[in-house]
Write a structure and sequence with these properties.
There is one protein chain. This protein is an alpha/beta fold and 368 residues long. It has two domains: 10-257, Aldolase class I (TIM Barrel), CATH 3.20.20.70; 269-360, Up-down Bundle (Chorismate Mutase Domain, subunit A), CATH 1.20.59.10. It is built from 14 helices and eight strands. The protein has helices at 10-13, 32-45, 71-83, 94-102, 112-115, 118-127, 145-157, 184-193, 203-207, 213-222, 249-257, 269-309, 317-333, 338-360, and strands at 21-25, 50-52, 87-90, 107-110, 135-138, 163-167, 199-201, 227-231. An eight-stranded parallel β-barrel has the order 1-2-3-4-5-6-7-8, surrounded by five helices. α4 runs parallel beside α6 (118-127), α6 (118-127) packs parallel to α7 (145-157) and α13 runs antiparallel to α14 (338-360). The two termini are 37 Å apart. Bound molecules: phosphoenolpyruvate and manganese (II) ion. Residues 27, 54, 111-112, 138, 168, 205 line the site of phosphoenolpyruvate. It holds the Pfam family DAHP_synth_1.
Length: 368
């Protein structure tokens, strides 16, 4: 997938030194008092760089609180004046963009539901032509890397170079411990494709509950993400939206204090040497893994030919069960994670089936 983003580094539009960028604030602006009180407590923690609050809320079902609307922009502006914190809010239409900019909103974000709709993103992009404001693009609700990248490209083509992505997890039909599955690999793929693009993690919307936030936030730092956007409310229990996942400013401060920051680079030559050696060892093993997989596929091909010539079905469930059972026992004895082993075997098995299918559907050389 070719990417075409022309962006400037995060440091050039928001310099936090070596520290990650921390955006925090309520899911929704509810009342002027709630916005101001929360903003002051967040500013007092000394750990928050930007104040967030939703003014227009895209809700899954009608009848829920759909945001306080334009009046809330004035509360945000006041919070900015009183605390000195720059402010950010979600925009989903050209009108939102105009109103937010007129109210002095410093950073705009595009929500997950909007990112999923290219018409909406294009409308926002058109409204941003000639405007020099940073834009954060949340991943779409569905796990689709192209859609995420496409939204970033649309905004970028409107001339916005101060861009970042927000990883807020992906909706899935299966109910898991998370409200939105993190699917880290998609965010990592984006980082790999556009190494200069800052990626900010949104543990609140991934978790859907307070308890898991520290775990996801730490993981985000460990994955070298550049910041966090966390929902924080002066009294989460009475929040009008996303009550279960919001934390008090004090809880946020404690949470941030307990996260370990790991540096991507080190100036220590001994450390660099050791790392380089370990990476070499990994490369060697990876080469071996590839070679072994290739040898395995060659045997699979032979089996495919044999099955074809003897009219045997490709999939034999009992054989597959045996592979999973025996291999995962060995893997467990070798301290490999069971879920990882099963996933890996499934991947290999699917490829083997594909290969055998190919062979079953080509005639033997003699008959061709
Ligand atoms: C939000 O940040 O409050 C929000 C609506 O998030 P998302 O677009 O990720 O669902
Ligand atoms: Mn929310």
């Amino acid at each position: 997938m070719k990417q075409t983003l022309d962006i400037v580094p995060l440091k050039s539009w928001f310099d936090t030194g070596d520290a990650p960028l921390i955006i925090a604030g309520p899911c929704s602006a509810e009342t002027e008092e709630q916005v101001l009180a929360t903003a002051h407590l967040l500013a007092n923690t000394g750990r928050v760089n930007v104040l967030r609050a939703g003014i227009w809320k895209p809700r899954t079902r009608p009848g829920e609180f759909e945001g306080i609307g334009s009046i809330g922009l004035q509360w945000l502006r006041r919070a900015k004046e009183e605390t000195g914190l720059p402010i950010t809010t979600e925009v989903a239409t050209a009108k939102h963009v105009e109103e937010a900019l007129a109210a002095g909103v410093d950073i705009l974000w595009i929500g997950a539901r909007s990112t999923a709709n290219p018409f909406t993103v294009q409308e926002i992009a058109d409204a941003l032509k000639g405007v020099d404001v940073p834009v954060l693009v949340k991943n779409p609700v569905n796990p689709d890397l192209s859609l995420w990248l496409g939204a970033l490209e649309r905004i970028n083509r409107a001339g916005v170079k101060k861009l970042a992505a927000i990883h807020r997890g992906f909706s899935s039909y299966e109910k898991t411990a998370f409200r939105n599955e993190p699917m880290w690999d998609i965010a990592i793929q984006l980082k790999t494709m556009v190494p200069d693009l800052p990626v900010i993690n949104d543990p609140s919307h991934i978790c859907g509950n307070r308890e898991l936030i520290p775990y996801i936030a730490q993981k985000a730092f460990d994955m070298d993400m550049q910041g966090l956007i966390v929902e924080s409310h002066i009294d989460p229990s009475v929040a009008w939206t996303d009550a279960k996942q919001q934390v008090t400013p004090q809880a946020l401060s404690d949470l941030l204090a307990n996260l370990a920051l790991r540096h991507a680079k080190s100036d220590d030559p001994v450390f660099e040497d050791k790392l380089a050696q370990l990476r070499k060892d990994i490369d060697k093993l990876d080469d071996q893994i590839i070679k072994i997989l290739s040898d395995r596929m060659k045997i699979v091909e032979k089996i495919g030919e044999y099955k074809r010539d003897n009219n045997v079905t490709i999939l034999q469930v009992s054989r597959w069960d045996e592979i999973i059972q025996k291999r995962s026992n060995v893997a467990q004895a070798l301290k490999l994670d069971k879920e990882f082993t099963v996933k890996l075997l499934e991947l290999i098995h699917n490829e083997s089936i594909r290969k055998q299918n190919e062979i079953m559907n080509t005639k033997p050389v003699a008959e061709a």
